[in-house]
Amino acid sequence: MKLCVIGTGYVGLVGAAIFADWGNEVVGVDIDENKIKKIKNGEMPIYEPGLSEIVLENIKENRLSFTTSIADGMREAEIVFICVGTPQSDTGAADLSAVWNVAKEIGQHLKDYKVIVTKSTVPVGTNEKVREIIKENLKEKVEFDVASNPEFLREGSSVEDMRNTDRTVVGADTQRAHQVMHKLYDHLGTPIVECDLRSAEMIKYSSNAFLATKISFINEIAQICERAQADVTVVARGMGLDRRIGTAFLNAGIGYGGSCFPKDVAALYKTSTDQAYDFKLLRSVMEVNKLQQVNFVDKVKKHFGSNLTGKTLGCLGLAFKGDTDDIRESVSIEVIRQLRGLGAYIKVYDPQASTNARAVLGDTAIEYCEDEYSVMKGSDALFILTEWKQFKGLDLEKVKSLLKNHVIFDGRNLLDKTDVEKSGFTYYAVGKYTKGLKELQDKKVTHTSAVLKNNGS
Ligand code: UGA
After folding, report:
1. Which residues hold NAD(+) (predicted)?
2. Are residues 283 and 226 in the same domain?
3. Which residue from 157, 208, 239 has its CB within 8 A of the most atoms of ligand 1, so it is best to mutate?
4. Active site residues
């Protein structure tokens, strides 16, 4: 099939590359000339395992090309995908201006029947408005359909996720549009949820909100485990092996971040209030997520006191999760800001995200190290803030020889508590009992409205 993909961010670029890899002829479009130039040379604008190889291979095979012109990109296409960003606006709702602009341009250049598909995460009702905008901007009478085809890929494993999808969701109002979409996806052999536009839009937000709820749920269980002297990792495994629950997204930690969960949960909450409904559970999900950070930093204050002046803290991880260079809404960055704000000098290492982080954290009282062990040299404590796999395999004897104080704060529960404690460290994880924390655990946590405000609701 001939396809056009507008927007070359995570969803658009990975989508265009994988569609081409399936044998389709794909044109990727982006207004950013510089970005297009770089992609054509195999320089990916994002770090994503396996992506550049697929892009280069498909450019070579003439299945994948790029342009800055929507008119050129969509000319021959049977399907035009809208994959532009929908960032969070001040109200918590998604900012859809890029989607509206693209829809307008599509309308101006539409000359024959195409299915215009929104892959960007957009609130319920958006596709109907896309249809209206296209109609208003048509230069001649031409038939078209709109469809909603949300994407469920995760950063860091997006290539894998798109190849091995659990399901494909397609919302459309006509059989003609559904048939075109079947041609693209039937070969995957996984279920296609064929539905109306609004249900498809809701599926995307509901899925992200449910996953965020799972994380906040296990994070609250973690709080109880700490106090009741149980181990949240064991509890999560024991729960997750029940197939009705599942083990995924039950890793307790310092909270979820990234460009999706915080914004999508806030946007769904906004949709609920717009519909005159107060989604109480979702409000708590956001609040709990913020409190995980607060509780983690509280442990540091409990251990060292609230003034960290003169302390050097070695931190591992800046990205919002492992296997990505993305630092958007990264909890790690927020925790580092707070520790630095308490007077600490920070030494930090991330395998991919240091350059991006430096742009927001600057160079004051912070040193960006070349590897994990340099971070530890002379530090008063070690912090694990992002779940990079390589941090799991730390040589504890080496860590011990480098750190000034044998204290580890593990915000992602990456290390084995028994091993770490046997090696002589004081180990603060999330949802695992640590001796001496009684006082902190007894402390009342106040749920302030500021917490919610920070989450954009
Ligand atoms: C998320 C969804 O998982 C994708 O299905 C969706 O397509 C994507 O948003 C999107 O809407 O575009 P992503 O944000 O890339 O994907 O990352 P996740 O792997 O979901 O992780 C999100 C955050 O949750 C990270 O900060 C991670 O550290 C945290 N997390 C994840 C936990 O704290 N515990 C877990 O058990 C899992």
Report:
1. 30, 35, 86, 121, 155, 263, 328
2. yes
3. 208
4. 260
- Nearest atom in ligand 1 to the alpha carbon of residue 264 is 11
Q: Which atom of ligand 1 is nearest to the CA of 387?
A: 28
| Domain total in the chain | 2
378-409 pLDDT, tens digit per residue, is 999 999 999 999 999 999 999 999 999 999 99
Q: Which one of 195, 226, 252 terminates a domain? A: 195
Question: Does residue 88 come out as left (phi exceeding 0), alpha (psi in the -120 to 50 range) or beta?
Answer: beta
Range of the structural domain that residue 22 is part of: 2-195
For ligand 1, the distance from its centroid to the CA atom of residue 252, given in whole angstroms, is 13
Domain CATH number, residue 306:
3.40.50.720
Distance CA 66, CA 72 (A): 10
Residue 139 is labelled as binding a ligand: no
What CA–CA distance (Å, rounded) separates 361 from 380? 21
Closest CA to 204 of 150, 285, 164, 127: 150
Same domain, 250 and 135: no
- The answer to whether the CB of 186 falls within 8 A of the CB of 259 is no
What's the pLDDT tens digit per position in 82-104? 999 998 888 888 899 999 999 99
Ligand 1 centre distance from Cα of residue 76 (Å)? 35
Q: Is-contact 111 140, C-beta < 8 A?
A: yes
Q: Whose CA is nearest to atom 12 of ligand 1?
A: 260
Question: Which residue is it, tokens 């992602």?
Answer: 412
Does the annotation flag 257 for ligand binding? yes
